[in-house]
Amino acid sequence: MTRGVGPVVPAVTLRFLVLGDSLAFGTGAASPQHTLGARLTRTLERAGEPVELQVVAVPGATSLDLAAQVRRAAAADVALLVVGANDLTRQVPPAKSAAALGAAVRELRERGTQVLVVPTPDLSSVAWVPPAFRTVVAGICDQLRARQTLAAEAAGGVVAPVAPELSARFAEDPTLFSADRFHPSSAGYALVADAVAPHLAELVAQRSDDAA
User: Fold this and answer.
1) From 183, 185, 186, 199, active-site residue
2) Alpha carbon 108 to chain centroid distance?
3) What is the pLDDT of residues 121-148, one digit of tens each?
4) 31 catalytically annotated
5) Are 29 and 184 in contact (CB under 8 A)?
6) Which candidate, 65, 154, 145, places its Cα nearest to that of 115?
7) Taken in order 93, 105, 198, 14, is the CA torsion positive or negative?
8) How far is it, in rounded angstroms, from Cα 76 to Cα 112?
9) Which among 63, 53, 54, 73 is positioned nearest to 21, based on CA atoms?
10) Sheet holding 114-118: strands in order across?
11) Catalytic: which of 22, 63, 167, 185?
């Protein structure tokens, strides 16, 4: 007599949202498959998570543009929010920048979305920053990142503190930049994805534990 194994329960698809600026969009990558969202999607899928990726990030966006992206986004389980570089280059006041980020995170959390924030990178490693100004630029980036971190965490988000590690790597290796010498190359996005992946996996696992 053959013993039944019971019904097979299909895996639940994880709805993964990516929003923010050109780093979230993937500007500089040689292929859509090399972007941050695509790389992290494959990482989650290799871990056994069926994933549906939605990217609403816009190149050139600042934190002030996040509200429109959140409104445009469909429901999601987990969101990756990458923003900050354009806030600095476009001189958005840090308090306004942090407040806009916090509001976007809060809105996503109210929808039931877990949010991982990658705050402003350290722009001192960018080639067009003169060596004499790199310490100053790094300090400005640190100040905005600290404000972003406080705002994101107060709104219920989780912050991936990857900027120092990535800055050192990008400063040592110019091939991590694309031809514009500002955005990452495909190799640069691979490095960023590797740094972010453990934080994203931890957030996804926490969500699964909470739902169990």
Assistant:
1) 183
2) 14
3) 999 888 778 888 889 999 999 999 999 9
4) no
5) yes
6) 154
7) negative
8) 8
9) 63
10) 51-55, 14-20, 78-82, 114-118, 158-159
11) 22
Check: pTM over 0.70? Answer yes or no. yes
Structure tokens at 40: 């992290």
The single residue listed with the structure tokens 């190149």 is 59
Does the annotation count 180 as an active-site position?
A: yes
**Could you report the per-residue pLDDT of 80-111, keeping only the tens digit for each?**
999 999 999 999 999 999 999 999 999 999 99
Do the beta carbons of residue 71 and residue 87 sit within 8 Å? no
Angle, vertex CA 87, rays to CA 84 and CA 90, nearest 5: 150
Neighbour-count burial for 148-161, b at 16+ CB within 10 Å, e otherwise? bbebbeebebbbbe
Tell me: pLDDT of 6 over 60: no
CA 122/CA 142 separation, integer angstroms: 7
User: Per the structure block, which two tokens stand in for 87?
Assistant: 């806030």
State how far the alpha carbon of 154 is from the alpha carbons of 4, 99, 166, 171, 193, in Å.
50, 11, 25, 32, 25
Measure the CA dihedral 144/149/152/157, to 10°.
150
Are 53 and 37 in contact, with CB atoms under 8 Å apart?
yes
Q: Has 208 been annotated as catalytic?
A: no
Taken in order 135, 179, 163, 173, is the CA torsion positive or negative? negative
